[in-house]
Amino acid sequence: GDGRKKEFDIKIKCMIYLADTANIDEIKELFNYFPMEGVTTNPNILSHEQKSLSTVIPLIQECIKDKMLHIQTISHLAEDILQEAKRYRDYFNLGDNYYVKIPVTKEGYKAIRLVKDAGMKVTATAIFTQQQALIAAKAGADFVAPYVNRLDNISSHGIDVVRDIVETFKSYQLNCKVLGASFKNVDQIYRVSMVGCHAVTASYEVLDAIMKHPMTDKGVIDFEKDGKH
Ligand code: E4P
After folding, report:
1. How far does the centroid of ligand 1 lie from the alpha carbon of residue 136, in Å?
2. Where are the beta strands (DSSP E) in 96-222?
3. What's the sign of the alpha-carbon dihedral 59, 65, 67, 73?
């Protein structure tokens, strides 16, 4: 039942890998080969699929079963964000694996509290500073999502922000987890994992790239050659 799922999420102490895509073929392949924990979507990602939310979410649910599903709200006012989150929950019959993704605007911080009080889980998103993350965690967020590549692109350092947030949560003993987001390359994921980032969400391309190495492929070809003797 749902109780088990909750336990399951909280007990994951290792890196949680999420797919930042709404493409069904990509999700199927990633979940088939990788130890994936769920899917994150946002309006940009959904617009790439050229399908409505009501079409795409059930397809994702079918692929990922009871794994985490983070769906972003697009309303502006806190009360509207709450209503939107409830609409998705009820329409898609979402359970304990549902995370309401809320951007940390002023209304967003308020919405985090409202959504938590209504018994749903929250991923605070579009985070660029340690203070935004800390305030979101205080408001009750279960995950905070700092945008690593978008920081790197404006001559900031995504890795430093992630490290600061991880250390802050540790020193204040907050249960909130850091979900690194907005990755464009393997190195960004490597570096956040080295500072104890709890989770990452990344595109199919980046997830595909982190498991590969040309020397592995070469090694296997050589093993096969010698295995034939
Ligand atoms: C986070 O959940 C966002 O969907 C995403 O990672 C943002 O990434 P981008 O900077 O590639 O748009």
Report:
1. 18
2. 98-103, 121-127, 143-146, 177-180, 199-202
3. positive
Mean model confidence pLDDT for the chain: 94
Residue 140 has pLDDT above 80, yes or no: yes
Question: Which atom of ligand 1 is found nearest the CA of 42?
Answer: 4
Phi then psi for residue 131, to 5 deg, are -70, -40
**Placement of tokens 């899917």 in the chain:** 39
**Which amino acid belongs to residue 72?**
Q
Question: Rounded to an integer, what is the distance from CA 228 to the centroid of its chain?
Answer: 44
Per-residue buried b or exposed e for 55-79, using 16+ beta carbons within 10 Å of the residue's own CB: ebbebbbebbeebbbbbbbebeebe
Distances (CA, A) of 68 to 44, 86, 105, 108, 179: 19, 17, 24, 21, 13
What pTM, to 2 d.p., does this model score? 0.93
Q: How far is the CA of 220 from the centre of ligand 1 (A)?
A: 34
User: Active-site residue 101, yes or no?
Assistant: yes
Q: Is the CB of 203 under 6 A from ligand 1?
A: no
Segment 39-91, tens digit of pLDDT: 999 999 999 998 899 999 999 999 999 999 999 999 999 999 999 999 999 99
Over pLDDT 90: what percentage of the chain?
90
Q: What is the pLDDT of residue 68?
A: 97
